[in-house]
Each structure stands twice: as structure tokens, then as C-alpha cells.
Amino acid sequence: MAATSWYGSSSAEQGPAGDRPLGELFSDLSSSLQTLVRKEVELAKVEVKEQASRAGKAAGLLAGTAVAGFVALLLLAFALAWGLAEAVPTGVAFLAVGLLFSVAAALLLVAGRQKLATVRPVPEQTVRTLREDVEVAKTSLSRGVQY
Predict the structure, then answer these.
(1) pTM of structure
(2) Could you tell me which residues come within 8 angstroms of residue 4 by beta carbon, excluding any fewer than 6 positions away?
(3) Strand, helix or coil at 4?
(4) Residue 87: helix, strand or coil by DSSP?
(5) pLDDT tens digits, residue range 26-78?
(6) End-to-end C-alpha distance for the chain, whole angstroms
(7) What is the dihedral of CA 130, 132, 138, 141, to 10 degrees?
(8) pLDDT tens, 103-137?
(9) 145 burial class (0-12, 13-18, 19+ CB within 10 angstroms)?
């Protein structure tokens, strides 16, 4: 036996959404919005995790730059000290190695900056879909009010 609604027709006899009670429509809307928000939060988490991964890789390159720069500084300092103190080919060799590390540090710095420039801290896809969801909700509500 079908339950009867407040206006006397049974729920089994109800047709399109326009014939459903307002309370039932708002209940469905509330349930749908909860599901939508839950899915959007899941999407935001995935996007933030992806961006954090990209930031971590960029930070790794920058850390490599710091290590290479430190080694270059040490080697250049030794090369300069030994080169000036003795003025022998050993100092020139240290200088060449120090310059090599300096070039490596510069390359790592450029690569790290490029990686860091691609990081987007705002979950763009989630923001875009949330805007679309708001528009759909507005449209749905305005259609519901017109009936």
C-alpha cells in the first residue's frame, strides 16, 4: 500500500518533480548538495596532493643547488688560497673543478626555478567545477521557483 502525501495522492501516483511536495524536493536538494560538496572536497585533496608533489620536486632541485653551491664555494676558496699561496698547477686544477661545480649549481638553480614556476597552489579544477555547480544550483532553484 502506497503512502499518501499531505494533499491526498499516493507517492506511487506522483509524476514529475513538480508534483512532489516542497519538503521532499528540498530534502533531495540537500542530499545532492552534500554529495556534491563531498566529491568536490575529494577532488581538492587530489589536486593539492599533486601540487605538493610538484613543489617537493622543485624543493629537491633547489636543495641540490644549495649543496652544489656550497661545494663550489669550498673548492673555489681552496683553489684561490692554494693558487695564490703557491702559484702552481694544483691551484689551477682546484679552480677548474670549482668552476665546474659553479656551472652545475647554476644549472640546478635554473631547473629548480622552472619547476617551481609550474606549481599552482590553488586547486584550479575544483574552483572551476564549484563555480559550475553554483550556476547549476542557481538555475535549478530559479526553475523551481517559477513553477
Answers:
(1) 0.37
(2) 10, 11
(3) strand
(4) coil
(5) 778 778 888 888 888 888 888 888 888 888 888 899 999 999 988 888 877 77
(6) 30
(7) -90
(8) 888 999 999 999 888 887 777 777 788 788 778 77
(9) exposed
